[in-house]
Structures are given as C-alpha cells and as structure tokens.
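Fold this sequence, please.
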Amino acid sequence: MTRPAASRRHLPSSPFKAPVEPPVRGFGVGDRVNHDAFGLGRVVGVEEDVAVLVDFGATRRRVLSPYSRMTVL
C-alpha cells in the first residue's frame, strides 16, 4: 500500500506561488448550522478561532476549528 505524500513547504526562492490556505469560517451566536455527523443545530457559544458550542436539540457539542464538516444555513 502506498501512503499519500506529505505536504511540502514552500521555498521563498521558488518560481511558483505559495499555496493559499482557505480562510477559517466565522460563526456567530444564534447561527443555524448543519453538521455532517450531528445534523441541524444552533450556535450557542463561540470561542475565538478555537471552537463553537452548538445545540443539536438532544445534545450540545463543542466543535473544534477548522469546522470542515459544518456549514451555516
């Protein structure tokens, strides 16, 4: 089995552009969200660029950044 190549660092002397990192999405208290695993919920707390606390009805979950599995509705 082969493993995927590790990401390579960009050299300042390279003629190619550095890869652009996607911006971290911001969530505000009261935002309706959809999470791939937990479903629909509402943001009830925000920790700056670290995590958000989301109420999914039956449970409350702390979702850590970069929020790849969560979208704002």
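The CA atoms of residues 36 and 69 lie 5 Å apart. The mean pLDDT is 86.
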